[in-house]
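thread: overnight batch results

M.L. [08:02]
morning all. the overnight job finished for the chain we discussed friday. pasting input first so we're all looking at the same thing
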Amino acid sequence: MNRHAALQSLIHFDAPIPDLEARLRSLGWDSDEVVTLTRRHIADVLERYTSGRINATAVEAWANLIECREDIRIEPNHDKIVRAAIHDLANPKLQGKLQDIAPRILSSLSQGPPHAI
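M.L. [08:03]
and the structure it wrote out:
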């Protein structure tokens, strides 16, 4: 699997965490930005969580796989919101349980142009 396909799979969270981890292990950290993480990607993951299709542990692991990757660009004009959301999701011991912070994160992601997410 090439870098673009592996990173697309990651930002769409379309595979189990162990599979995503294995794909990412085969990639080096040194790369130009290949894919763009948007507010919609994060909102989709949180909607899957709130509907019970994935659990908080999976969301935390997903966010940890994304956080600090230099080959994932952040949605232009919304980088602070997207980075804060990923940080909060990756650090529940600092930010609180996902069930408590998910509504706030979803609300922050919807800020901006009406067609944004």
